[in-house]
Amino acid sequence: QVQLVESGGGLVQAGGSLSLSCAASLSTFSFVAIGWYRQAPGKQRELVAEIYSDGGTAYADSVKGRFTISRDSAKNTVYLQMNSLKPEDTAVYYCNGKRLSSTVVVYWGQGNQVTVSS
After folding, report:
1. Residue range 43-60, pLDDT digits in tens
2. Class of residue 18 by CB neighbours under 10 A (exposed 0-12, middle 13-18, buried 19+)
3. Which DSSP symbol is given to 34?
């Protein structure tokens, strides 16, 4: 069974920093992509950042220049460093992984609350 286990999150003041981790039960290279989506109450879940098997990355326009996604392949772990946090970053952050077998299979972590106070 493939599992994604998240850690991090919490409360931080605007302008502060926070780091999230997502540990996979198998090599991160087994995933087409691993990253985070976030969802605030009443809003759609949206992509925050994603890292691909070739090392390429993608970021939501709202977090570019503030968030950085990286991976430690030896630990099967992906990290999201969040700097210059804003109140609008407040949401539940879900680790997301996509694997390709005969089709794309999507896996989700349990989610972690990030709250940014003004």
Report:
1. 999 999 999 999 999 999
2. buried
3. E
